[in-house]
Amino acid sequence: MSERWPKDKPATPKRVLEANAVTQIDTLEEYQLLLVLANKTLSSYPLEALDTSDNQSAMVRRPKKIQGHANFFKSGIGLGRHLVCSVKTSTLSTTIKVFEPMENLAKGKKKPLSKMFQSGQDALKPFKVLNPDVFFNVSNAIANQILSGILHPC
After folding, report:
1. What predicted TM-score, i.e. pTM, was given to this entire model?
2. Three-class SS of residue 5?
3. Residue 98 belongs to what H/E stretch?
């Protein structure tokens, strides 16, 4: 079994992204995305943002907000697509927003020239909004079980 760190390299963690109160992270490797839930806001970063070299622009490390007031999210494959479900709960309602990664972000896809000029383009597009409270009152635990049954791990 090999070690993760070379013996001559210090093993102290280094902050790469400015995100406080992070409660959940996930990666969508095929789409080169890092999903971060921090301060109840779901954001995405390109995986390039984790590169520690100094020659990166500040735009690469800037998060793209997907949804505010999110309690948790789950990513996986459902309906034959990669999906990201974000759950927003309050005292009176629960809303599950389903997002799909933009197809032009998939690994191996050639990025068009216009992509270079559209740095503000969203990485995830809305797919569906579900409001299960119409049928029953949903807690975080039940919403997590629903999403686990719908989505299969990537």
Report:
1. 0.72
2. coil
3. strand 94-101
